[in-house]
Amino acid sequence: MVHQMRVRAGVDDESNEHVDFLDAKSLSHRKQVLLVTAGGNGHCLGLFVFQKHAPYDMVWSTEGLSGGAGICRESPINPKAFISAGRIVLQVPVFDYKRNVSKGPNVYVFEWNGKTYVARS
Question: In angstroms, what CA-CA distances link 80 with 45, 60, 99?
Fold first, then answer.
């Protein structure tokens, strides 16, 4: 199943992207699965939502944020994505290297509108 989802997400078998997170339960009321991939060293993420049953059609995906920035780490800690209350939550920890302190994470939330996931403002 994961292999089929990776292929539909455009991740070939020779890719250095790995599965960072897979949640097949939290969106089961919509018959959806969240697959989070991490490129190479895990610093950048791709988020993909698939229908839970074969052929695992992709419902939604994002590998970037508004303004065209990738979902990449901005601190020594990698970003992470998870489901909370039926929403996809993305946390990107931020670090102030000049002051050598954590600034806390930037948090992005994506909500289901009945057809796709949209960024919640």
Answer: 8, 17, 24
Which residue would you say has higher pLDDT here, 88 or 78? 88
At 66-76, the pLDDT tens digits run 777 889 988 88
Cα Rg of the chain (Å, integer): 15
Q: How far is the C-alpha of 62 from the C-alpha of 113, rounded, in Å?
A: 16
Distance, CA of 22 to CA of 49 (rounded, Å)? 10
Closest by CA to 83, choosing from 30, 12, 14, is 30
Strands 58-62, 71-72: pairing is unpaired
Strands 44-51 and 58-62: antiparallel
